Amino acid sequence: MLKSGGADPDRVALLAGVVKRSADNIYGLIEDIFDFVKSGHTHLRKERQPLEPLLEALAYQAKSIAPAKVETLLAAEPGLALSLDRRRLSRALFNLIKNAIEAMPTGGVLSLSARRAADTVEIEVADTGVGIEPERLERIWDQFYTHGKAQGTGLGMAIVKKIVEDHGWRVAARSTLGQGTAFTITAPAEE
Ligand SMILES: Nc1ncnc2c1ncn2[C@@H]1O[C@H](COP(=O)(O)OP(=O)(O)OP(=O)(O)O)[C@@H](O)[C@H]1O
Ligand SMILES: [Mg+2]
What we know:
CATH class of the largest domain: Alpha Beta
Low-confidence stretches: none
Radius of gyration: 18 Å
Bound molecules: adenosine-5'-triphosphate, magnesium ion
CATH architecture of the largest domain: 2-Layer Sandwich
Number of domains: 2
Distance between the termini: 51 Å
CATH superfamily of the largest domain: Histidine kinase-like ATPase, C-terminal domain
């Protein structure tokens, strides 16, 4: 389209936006991989962020990559906020979302949620996909551990763990084979 003369300026502007966002994404991905390869703590750019719009943006992204037979549900308690590095936490959640979608090749439900527990805030990404055998559940966090995928690099979950722990938070997995998997990120509640 860019080559053909007399292209519609609105379409060119739209396309330029898409190209810029893709480039920013690739830049962000490279930055995350460097963070991950470097040992030690990463400097986070933390700001207090409301969780509801952050999860809404991720649900929108999830819908754009998920096949039609995957339904995306969002249940974020309004008013929750945490001090976080938005770009990096979004990367971590997106890695979880991508795995969840990949675990549901014949369809299912992807649920994104955020809720307040006693002294903590829990962010959860859950799927109704293939599940993980108990003996494999510990290994999913390992660098380069991939199972059941033709194109997997095995870095997604290791990056999730690194980003969550750099925030001083925890991430846990529970799964039932044939029924699905849920990942919960737990952060101390901030008043
Ligand atoms: N929601 C899930 N359901 C089922 N299996 C999962 C889920 N999340 C992770 N896994 C398993 O953990 C493995 C490691 O995940 P990880 O994201 O680190 O790597 P990958 O998805 O294989 O590759 P990459 O994310 O780099 O493309 C996956 O290959 C898969 O077997
Ligand atoms: Mg992955």
